[in-house]
Amino acid sequence: MDATGATTSSADGGGSNSKASAKKNSRKPKYSRFTQQELPACKPVLTPGLVVEIVDRYDDSCVPPNYSNNKLKFIQDADTNKSCIRILPVPKLMKKPIYIYYQLDNYYQNHRRYVKSRSDKQLRSKSAANDISDCTPEDKTKDGPIIPCGLVAWSLFNDTYGFSLDSKTIQVNKHDIAWKSDKDHKFGDDVYPKNFQSQGLIGGAKLNSSLPLSKQEDLMVWMRTAALPTFRKLYGRIDEDLPANKKIQVLIQNNYNTYSFGGKKKLVLSTTSWIGGKNDFLGIAYIVVGGLCLFLAVFFILLYVIKPRPLGDPSYLSWNRTPSGQTN
């Protein structure tokens, strides 16, 4: 009994010492809600601002089937019905304001002859009505100078859009679509259209002769010429939300001639975020430039490793040479 008891006591003592030693050497931190990151916390999940965009090309679809092989005849015939109805589904909730753009492709507003065919002095002041030297061939008629003169104004975009949702008309706000600097400084409030689109070949939209140019914002937007052959210009603004999965009915007057030069016309509805609308150009540009820089960096590193350039001898520098031409 004694032997057994002594043995048991010894074993228990050894186990206690082992546990105490393991606990002493453990690196496990003392448990607390702070060390285990169990305290209540706010964990925001950031989501990028979403730009919803609807793009609809309508120049081909708005030509009647009997004119499908002769679209130019359709657009030039004043007696043909240019009305066209398009149905646009709304993929996601579009919160106001919703911007309406028209997009033209293969239209070179940056052509030198075209972009110079205007008179900025005439646009600014009534006293410069006869400043039409740069506006040929749209400079004057038999009744006097054309105001505004030039090919840029003459080719003013004239397609129109009307919107409805669930048989209810959606109002389009066309105020404040032009730059404030254009309204205040580039288009005069004493300059009124005169002899514009009055005879000969009609290029585009007509202007309200009772309104000064400073009030005709469609013209201001058009006169700010684009640098690239594919561009968008602001048509108006919708100041109400468009619910998701609804269908918008658009009544289009397909008046503008892009068929003679193979151009395309698109209607664009877009929301914006704090950095503007949807545009892939900057992202593509950054990737291209970054990739080019990486390629050049690797190229010059390999060039230096494979064929290092020998260091120059500083004794040949001009300030290390004596007047006699000998080195120091």
TrEMBL record:
<keyword id="KW-0812">Transmembrane</keyword>
<keyword id="KW-1133">Transmembrane helix</keyword>
<feature type="compositionally biased region" description="Basic residues">
    <location>
        <begin position="21"/>
        <end position="31"/>
    </location>
</feature>
<dbReference type="InterPro" id="IPR005045">
    <property type="entry name" value="CDC50/LEM3_fam"/>
</dbReference>
<protein>
    <recommendedName>
        <fullName>ALA-interacting subunit</fullName>
    </recommendedName>
</protein>
<feature type="transmembrane region" description="Helical">
    <location>
        <begin position="281"/>
        <end position="306"/>
    </location>
</feature>
<feature type="region of interest" description="Disordered">
    <location>
        <begin position="1"/>
        <end position="34"/>
    </location>
</feature>
<dbReference type="Pfam" id="PF03381">
    <property type="entry name" value="CDC50"/>
</dbReference>
<feature type="compositionally biased region" description="Low complexity">
    <location>
        <begin position="1"/>
        <end position="11"/>
    </location>
</feature>
<comment type="similarity">
    <text>Belongs to the CDC50/LEM3 family.</text>
</comment>
<keyword id="KW-0472">Membrane</keyword>
